[in-house]
């Protein structure tokens, strides 16, 4: 019997939300550091920015946890497809900048730099290459062995990630390995054990409670001490921070309990990675930041929020349309080279 590859729209909706979180987090970053004079001058304006940052900081963890939740099987064409997606989207961004009349680099070296500047794509590719070993470990280990490994892994990785650049506070493939295995553990063992004891509302409340607690703590620190703020941001806004991991896991388990099936959601989710590649292209990024800072300078809070939300959705929808072209191009290449087309690496297994 052929294995079903139907996407689960509840988790695909969370994938869309995670990418919208990524874009929103980058919008917040465009406004610079949380300096005490800035926050004390406009405390409630910055409370909104800090709360939004805190709500979105789990975006990367959620995205990788979803990959672990479904699991993925390594295929050579899958790895090549990921590389092609990076090259295709980054190249299209150069064409877009040229068409809009923006200045472009005058040296080939700067063009090449745009293709390897995506830290997430690099770490994700390494994770994908490691999935045969990770899947073999999960298949051979029982629940106790997998749980003990995860506890040991995070007992070492969490503190070391704050001191060693190789771990980079969760930006490295090593951190992604832990999240992938945690996602597998949540689906295979933890979620079934929860049963009906934890409803989606309780799990969502865990995420919301952690978000409000951390945002309130950071806002209070920023009103009083720049040193304390810098320390707290570096600690609490790491992808390896236990609170970020717990909140992200709770949100994943929450969405896993939602019953939903939608072709539209599934189609939109297919463009999620393209949305990251598009707005974070090395030479698009400055214009992306400037757009939102200009909006903030021209409009008051409520109109700005509406325009910013519309712009973020517009970026995502444009990426989805561009990714359709990318998929057509990839199918053409597969037909020419006679590679067998394989499902997207984020497709449900």
User: What string gives the helices and strands in order?
Assistant: HHHHHHHHHHHHHHHH
State the helix count: 16
Distance between the termini: 15 Å
Envelope shape: globular
Major sheet characteristics: none
Question: Which structural class fits the helix and strand makeup?
Answer: mainly alpha
Features:
single chain, 349 residues, mainly alpha, 16 helices
Describe the model.
The protein is mainly α and 349 residues long. It is 76% helix and 0% strand. It is built from 16 helices and no strands. The protein is globular. The model is unreliable at 341-349 (pLDDT under 50).
Per-chain topology:
Blueprint lengths: L8 H21 L6 H6 L1 H14 L2 H12 L5 H24 L8 H8 L3 H22 L2 H18 L12 H22 L5 H25 L1 H11 L5 H15 L6 H8 L1 H8 L5 H14 L2 H37 L12
Summarize the structure.
By secondary structure, this protein is mostly helical. It contains 16 helices and no strands.
